[in-house]
């Protein structure tokens, strides 16, 4: 059983001679008093009506505020009971104080970033830093309440990106990151479920810029057979791309952190940084050929395979992330030049990540089932795999129509 009551707490006297007006909460015989930051003297208080009298400055407005706060506490209790949750007077107080001192979006984002950095989740922290920087730019550094992130706000935020020429895929990343922040804020009771705008605003409409991420067999062979000067930037970039392709489209971050200790019994064994899933891949001849290029014969098992990270320089998680990001940009630039040199038309979309899409599409073209491709790539569902296969499916349909008769 629980109850709430507005009281003039005469047991406590303030320095100005007034007594605080408080909400008394009783749950299972335990009592808690919550101060409203309002006080008065007994002769200006009607205890039967629980109202300030006319002699109190702004008495009507203050009476409205007092009863509004009691209503909020009653609503919190009702929510607990409707959800079937057990609760204490401390639970009620905590939730009530959160409604009074709502954390701002900027402050909460920074708190989440700080938490991620403390747990060495630098990649996630970087993504959320980018979001916070973007929100500050969009609002001219004016902070937001979570209730400000409504459907209208999201549309305007999207429009601002589009006007600046930002791709829909990039917009999707920002929106998904913002949605994750809002969902976490709801779980931690900094945001009300009623303020959630992503049920109405659909991020999926932005995932339209994914076509032609894969290249076909002939195009892949052109890159494999392309001659580059040994130890040049393009030589390394080509090797990274081919290595990734023959190893189920290994992510560049994972490739950069691959060590000789990951090579065991003619297999590559590693945990994917993005998902935490373990991979165990048999080393194919072309993979071995690339490993031989980087092997000196006297490697320590803890040495990196590829000359991307230097353990003497890149010691902290942040320095590793920064280095990998820098080299990945250079690799993507080299790949575009290589693609241009061998006559691949979609040079704007050739990046290291294309190796992953291409592995999936070419395996499908070779007759491998989507379920096997999905399992090999570590996807949770075939729906995710279908995104990788989208451009291939279109090519097959075009060819099938051409050969209809």
Tags for this entry?
3-stranded antiparallel sheet; hpI Integrase, Chain A; 405 residues; mainly alpha; 15 helices; disordered C terminus; 3 domains; 11% strand
Describe this structure in words.
The chain has 405 residues and is mainly α. It folds into three domains: 2-100, no CATH class; 105-206; 217-402, hpI Integrase, Chain A (Orthogonal Bundle), CATH 1.10.443. It is 50% helix and 11% strand. The protein is built from 15 helices and eight strands. The strands form three sheets. Strands 1-2-3 form a three-stranded antiparallel beta sheet, with helices on one face. A three-stranded antiparallel beta sheet has the order 6-7-8, with no helix packed on it. Strands 4-5 form a two-stranded antiparallel ribbon. Strand 2 (19-27) and strand 3 form a beta hairpin.
How many β strands by DSSP? 8
Q: Characterize the biggest β-sheet.
A: 3 strands, antiparallel
Radius of gyration: 30 Å
Order of helices and strands: EEEEEHHHHHHHHHEEEHHHHHH
Q: CATH superfamily of the largest domain, please?
A: Intergrase catalytic core
